[in-house]
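Holo prediction — adenosine-5'-diphosphate.
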Amino acid sequence: MSQAGSISVSNIQKIYDPEGAAVHALENCSCEIPSGKFVAMVGPSGCGKSTLLNMIAGFDKPTSGEIKLDDQLLVSANTQTPPNSDRVVVFQNGALFPWKTVLENIAYGPIVQKTRGRGQAEEEARELLNKAGNLERIAGSFPGQISSGMQRRVEILRALINKPKVLLLDEPFRAMDTVSKSKMHQHLLDIHDKFRPSILLITHDLVEAILLADVVLVMTTRPGTIKVNINVELPRPRSREMILSDEFTELQKQAIAAVHEEARKAFERGEKELA
Ligand code: ADP
Ligand code: MG
């Protein structure tokens, strides 16, 4: 019996528009996100990463194969468990309500879902802000008054108030500058350390993938399947200095080799962009 929050993806095939253009997005795709582990996924553009994440989230169904959460069927060709607080997606430009304060934004979900009263929800929101590194000082600010990095942190806390078992992140730091990005890495490492959700992070950035994750999954070009499964055994807590270690360089070489081989195939087929 697996622990709470483990995702198991078996033999997923996804064909968009099977009667017409028939885009084979995923084929024979299997992987695991073990309970409390941090998994990063990289692969050429259009190889089906978002397709897979969206199915785990409950936004779509596969053509065949199944996805389980803790041994319970989540999705298959005939099953689609709607999105719920077990598994939460943090979107790239997740919209905070500009007219609500940071505290109100974080407390919003449980209040509308009536799982907690306003007082209780706001108390928990305050605790989260505090636990996430003394962010209580921004509790009364409006989203427009804080930096975009800070907004992203608030979005993650807004997801965490529902105590998700699985956190799903689809290229959340793509548009960020290097300094903001490295602050976000530290924040995400802290979140993982303190709250221990299982995490699936899709990224184009191999250094980010290795620095954060326990396992890096490299996908093939479309139809996407897992090409290589790289175990990252760097100790935790992780720190940026680890990027300079021999062990890190070795992992990076492995990942680059796998990604470039796939990017080259995609390029030769006329698809653009790598990883
Ligand atoms: P990635 O996130 O790895 O860049 P996606 O999962 O977004 O890739 O897309 C995988 C493939 O499926 C792409 O070729 C994309 O064009 C196609 N695709 C994605 N969504 C749809 C859709 N709703 N209808 C048809 N094709 C789609
Ligand atoms: Mg995508």
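READOUT: Residues 49-50, 170 surround magnesium ion (ligand 2) (CB under 6 Å).
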